[in-house]
Amino acid sequence: MEEEKEHKRADKKGRVPFWRSVRARYALTYILVVASILLVLNTYPLVMAENMVFNAKQENLKRQALVMGAALAVSENLSTESVEQTMALLEKVQVTRILVTDRNARILYDTSTIEDRRSDVALMGEVVKALDGYDVTRAEYRQGAFRSRAAVPVVYRGEILGSVYLYEYDADQAEILHTIQSNLRSISIIIGFIALLLVLLFTKALTASTARLLGAIRRVREGEYSHRAEVRGSDEIAQLADEFNQLTGRLQVTEEARRRFVSDASHELKTPLACIRLLTDSILQNPDVDIETAREFVADIGSEADRLTRISEHLLALTRLDAGGTRKQEYVELNQVAERAVHMLEPLAEASDVTLRAYLEPACAVLAGADDLYQVAFNLIENAIKYNVPAGSVDVTVCPRGDQIALIVLDTGVGIPDEDIGRVFDRFYRVDKARSRERGGTGLGLSIARDTARLHGGDITVEHGKNGVGSRFTAVFPALPKEDESV
Ligand code: ADP
């Protein structure tokens, strides 16, 4: 299902189609932002400039029309002659057309040069409105020119005598505006191109590092745990690559440990099986084997089978510990647990000619699994006896140590050489293989003990014994505070 999903996302080589890629999304976003900015730059100032020109022109024309209207309002009637006389007196104004009508919109004066005027009556909407008593202005931009109009009534003693209509055609200012507009457009196109180029370069660099990281992730996923992502810089992607590399490093260590464990475990299992095979072959291939020898061989087969059982039990215990999960926790007196383990191991100590002494302080309570604690104590004390020398001794102490309870197992045994002391907790690690095997060891006991202690918030450490003789194993567990002892 997941695989299918992934296939939908990427092609066989793991490439994402461009339109679905981060690069396309980034590029599109940037392009949209740049385009919007350019669009605003291309429209807003021009619209503003156009409005300003419109307003200025309308105001100007209206003012001039008002001046003319005022100048014409001198008698009760407007005639062609009176208008022409007044106009002649007025300063020359720079407008394209001046048109004066009487109250019936009949044209009295017109500077227009258009010959074929169709009528003597001015039918423009502005004139009609002005004759109704309104001051009218209108401006528009059409066909590369500003066209502005203003019309005002000529009022004499409250009576409308006619209207003045001014029209201005301005192509020069429109041209300037047009030039600005086309310049802005060219600049925008250049900026647009540069932005596009930069966006493509930037997104390429960005996606190149993500692609490298993705490639590295795939290689690691396919089992190449030694591969590392190479991303330069210190941005988020570089940090991501760094985190990924660290994660892969840990994965590599875990994977190596797992492989080593599997190979060690199969080796350990193979050895007793090979012994059993050898022993059975010896019996089967030798028809004259006497009953005593056969018994001896069968007894050996039995002890090899015991060994196999022990190894499988230890392996199972480790698997359970590796799986983690919750362990039963209860109020346990570590001194009592240690006492039980010492008691159980007394016969072994006696048989090995080792003196076993216990110094157990009362009320050393911890919150842990009683069986787990027993296993830890048993393993440490058993090892101290197993790896001891004749007439040697083992001292087991349980006492509080700060906010912890310590179980100290000190022996006067063979000791652990400096080069091995750091490795005795490793799985299947044995200082003296032959001795361990001979004593029924699996090389897993200490590893299980330490994992178990850690599961209960404790730990186990090892050092050389008193005056460098033998070893001292110390297991510590968090002490249960007095008020919690009711748990
Ligand atoms: P084993 O089943 O071989 O005893 P352990 O994990 O219990 O495995 O111990 C690992 C190795 O550490 C042993 O093989 C032994 O060489 C060494 N060792 C453990 N305890 C002692 C000790 N008290 N004194 C000397 N060597 C020890």
Describe the structure.
The protein has 487 residues and is of the alpha+beta class. The chain has 3 domains: 1-224, 2-Layer Sandwich (Beta-Lactamase); 236-319, Orthogonal Bundle (Helix Hairpins), CATH 1.10.287; 327-484, Histidine kinase-like ATPase, C-terminal domain (Heat Shock Protein 90, 2-Layer Sandwich), CATH 3.30.565.10. It has helices spanning 2-9, 22-72, 80-89, 125-131, 172-221, 236-285, 291-323, 334-351, 370-386, 418-421, 433-438, 445-455; strands spanning 97-102, 107-110, 136-142, 145-156, 159-170, 330-333, 354-360, 365-368, 392-401, 404-411, 459-464, 471-478. The strands form 3 sheets. A 5-stranded antiparallel sheet has the order 2-1-5-4-3, with helices on both faces. Strands 7-9-10-12-11 form a 5-stranded mixed sheet, with helices on one face. It has a two-stranded antiparallel ribbon with strand order 6-8. Strand 9 and strand 10 form a beta hairpin. The two termini are 47 Å apart. The structure holds adenosine-5'-diphosphate. Adenosine-5'-diphosphate (ADP) is lined by residues 383-384, 387, 411, 413-416, 424, 429-432, 436, 441-447, 471.
Task: Considering the chains and any ligands shown, give keywords for the structure.
Heat Shock Protein 90; single chain; binds adenosine-5'-diphosphate; 487 residues; Helix Hairpins; five-stranded antiparallel β-sheet; Beta-Lactamase; alpha+beta
Break the fold down into its secondary structure elements and pairings.
Elements: H1 2-9, H2 22-72, H3 80-89, E1 97-102, E2 107-110, H4 125-131, E3 136-142, E4 145-156, E5 159-170, H5 172-221, H6 236-285, H7 291-323, E6 330-333, H8 334-351, E7 354-360, E8 365-368, H9 370-386, E9 392-401, E10 404-411, H10 418-421, H11 433-438, H12 445-455, E11 459-464, E12 471-478
Parallel strand pairs: 7-9
Antiparallel strand pairs: 1-2, 1-5, 3-4, 4-5, 6-8, 9-10, 10-12, 11-12
The chain binds adenosine-5'-diphosphate.
Adenosine-5'-diphosphate is lined by residues 383-384, 387, 411, 413-416, 424, 429-432, 436, 441-447, 471.
